[in-house]
Amino acid sequence: MISAVFDGSRAERRRRTFSSGGRYGASGMSRAEPEEMSLLSEVQGWDPEACRRQLSAALPRLFSLYQATDSGIQHIYILRILTERFLPHIKLSELEKDFFSKIFPKTIELFDLLLYEISAEAKSLTNKNVQLNMTLRNHFQDLIHMLEVLTDCVQHICSRQEMVPLEHVYSLPSSVLHVIKNTFLHCKSSESLYAECLHIVSDLLQSLFKGTYNLQKQFMMLLDILSINSCATEDSIRVMASVIHTMLEICSAISSIDHALHANTWKFIIRQILKHKSLIKDSLKHSDIFSGLCEDILFSFQSCLQLAEHMKLSGTQEIIDYKVFQRTIKLCRFFANSLMHYIKEFTSFLVDSCYQLHQTYLQIYSKFPPSLHALVISEAHQNEIARGFLMSLDSLLLPLLSFRPFIEVVLSKTLALSPELHFPQCQLLLSLMEMLPSQPQDVQALWNRGSQLPEEIPRLPLFAALLLSLQQCPSELSLPVFLQRATETEQAERPLTFYHYVCIHLCTFITSLPVSHFHLLESFLLETVLGPNMIMALLAMDVWCFLARYGTEDLCAHHAFIIAHVVKACPAECYQVSFLGVLLRRLLFLMAPDHQASLT
Predict the structure, then answer these.
(1) What is the pTM of this model?
(2) CA–CA distance, 67 with 78 (Å, rounded to integer)
(3) What are 496's strand-pairing partners?
(4) C or N: which end of the chain has fewer Cβ atoms within 10 Å?
């Protein structure tokens, strides 16, 4: 992780660097014309009052000099003079027109050039090439000082302690974010870029990262005081949407560098989206934001499992490993909660993201016990992850229960899953069965009746989808795979075999199923009993017997008579006859005496 603190105070570094004899001092500007040298030397001696009086006369000449100079040293020296001496005297309403629009294009041009030269020089870097090492270090120093200048610009605006209209600083957000994003990307690729010579520039990389970190921190403070009125122009909306999308790219760049900064950046993104929701919601790339959260959940969860596996296999639980493990669980929960908040606020914009959410949910459960594809972790760590993260993940389903696109993905008749995802699909459907009874009747109907019209996307009833998914899990149904629900307390439910767990939840779900959907249930139960899978046939029989006991005596008798007629209609050598015979005998013992006599 590249996150070391600068050696020495920032003010002291400036004093050493920008003094008259330093690399950025007036004596270092050998290419400047005598008249220009005179202006710069004169400005150095002005007090704040003199700078304020000479503002209108000096700024155009300094801007002209800034645009004309071809030296990075001169650029940064003049930029420092402009920001330290004259920026404080410019009115807020004139910042964009009279200052930022004049300096930022050239500043970004210089930044890109410096970063390009550093990357190019890194490929030829060796321990023996002293001259190249010095040139590279000078370029790094230029970048670090440029970051300081930009930070000063941002801090100056924040120091006004008032809301700042976005139109007064149009050029600032995009310019600052361009620098932050590309600097973090350079830090992220530093190991591969510098290879065995990384140690030569590690101190400068740390300072560069620290400077960028500080610039982003100040910039996020600035964004909190930026305002967009309700009559904002298209430019203002475009700029703010661009800020959100660039911050999303920054998240991707720092995800493997600094977890705390990564999480804080996401907090900032969500906060700004909600702050300006009414204005920018139609300009946001919601699928990119949603995808970023899903990817970060998966990455954090995988890291959490790997830590747990390491502690299990090593047989020890070092304090530092365990603390990192706990922090990673919190990070997983943070991303899950952020995703849930985003879903609640922007559900209607997530039509194209339902498939990814479904896959994310399945992939997480495929990597967690009792999945046969899970890593080996201790029971204690399983419980911590379940209580600290998976309960938050399940809560994501609640705002999606009434969202038809999500229902169509989960219950799709053409759903194609890889083998390791069939068991998680069953877990998902069972979780949905627990949640549905508390939902309004129209929501339950969406899940229970399947597609009814030709123009609808083909989907199965929930219980049918579960029965079909279970047929893809013969190993989990046969092996002693145990499930239990995590609770908020320390005590979890008693573990049950997967077969027992499914049977209980399916029977419980039937008690909330409207009578109007019973014909669909009966049809799928009969198909399952007549199917080739013996375990599934036994499960269907168990559920059918519960249905007979839960329903009326007439319903039980009706089912028994139907099964009897089917048995009579089947050829004697048909293997399904034995299954139907077992079911009929079990139903017979559940019938009322008068119905038993009638059947006989």
Answers:
(1) 0.84
(2) 10
(3) 483
(4) C
Nearest to 26 by CA among 98, 72, 77, 90: 77
Cα(201)–Cα(83) distance, rounded to whole angstroms?
29
User: Do 124 and 85 form a contact (C-beta atoms < 8 A)?
Assistant: no
Question: Please, are residues 12 and 6 in contact by the beta-carbon 8 Å criterion?
Answer: no
Q: Tokens 């389903």 appear where? A: 397
Which residues have a Cβ under 8 Å from the Cβ of 32 and sit 6 or more positions away?
40, 65, 69, 74
Rounded CA-CA distance 447/459 in Å is 9
Give the start-end residues of each E strand in 304-345: none
Residues whose CB falls within 8 Å of the CB of residue 235, separated by 6 or more in sequence, listed in order: 167, 170
Which residues 6+ apart lie within 8 Å of 315 measured at CB?
A: none
Spell 98-121 as b/e; 16+ CB within 10 A means b. Answer: bbbebbbebbbebbeebbeebeee
CA distance 579 to 561: 15
> What residues have CB less than 8 Å from 561, skipping those under 6 apart?
599
Which tokens sit at 578? 């034995």
**pLDDT tens sequence for the chain (600 residues):** 343 333 344 444 444 444 433 454 544 444 445 556 677 888 888 888 998 999 998 899 899 888 887 766 788 888 999 999 999 999 988 999 999 999 999 999 999 999 999 988 887 777 667 777 888 888 999 999 999 999 999 999 998 778 888 989 999 999 999 999 999 999 999 888 888 888 888 899 999 999 999 999 999 999 999 888 766 678 889 999 999 999 999 999 998 888 889 999 999 999 999 999 989 999 999 999 999 999 999 999 999 999 999 998 887 767 778 899 999 999 999 999 999 999 999 999 999 999 999 999 999 999 999 999 999 999 999 999 999 999 988 889 999 999 999 999 999 999 999 999 999 999 999 999 999 999 999 999 999 998 888 888 899 999 999 999 999 999 999 888 888 765 554 455 678 899 999 999 999 999 999 888 888 999 999 999 988 889 999 999 999 999 988 888 888 899 999 999 888 888 767 777 888 989 999 999 888 888 888 887
Nearest residue to 23 (alpha-carbon basis) of 86, 72, 70, 81: 72
User: Residue 80: which H helix or E strand, with range?
Assistant: helix 72-81
Rounded CA gap, 344 and 358, in Å?
A: 16
Long-range CB pairs of 528-535, under 8 A, 24+ apart, other chains included: 528/467, 529/576, 529/579, 529/580, 529/583, 530/576, 530/579, 530/580, 531/471, 533/471, 533/474, 534/579, 535/474, 535/477, 535/478, 535/499
CB within 8 Å of 31: residues ≥ 6 apart: 69, 70, 71, 74
227: three-class secondary structure by DSSP? strand
Q: How far apart are CA 45 and CA 490, in angstroms?
A: 70
Q: Is the dihedral of CA 37, 40, 46, 51 positive or negative?
A: positive
Least Cα distance to 471 among 423, 512, 521 occurs for 423
Q: Do residues 503 and 539 lie in contact, with contact meaning Cβ atoms separated by under 8 Å?
A: yes
Residue 320 CA to residue 192 CA, distance in Å, equals: 28
Output b/e per residue, 306-318; b: 16+ Cβ within 10 A: ebbbbbbeeeeee
- Residue 164 backbone class (left: φ over 0; alpha: ψ -120 to 50; beta: rest): beta
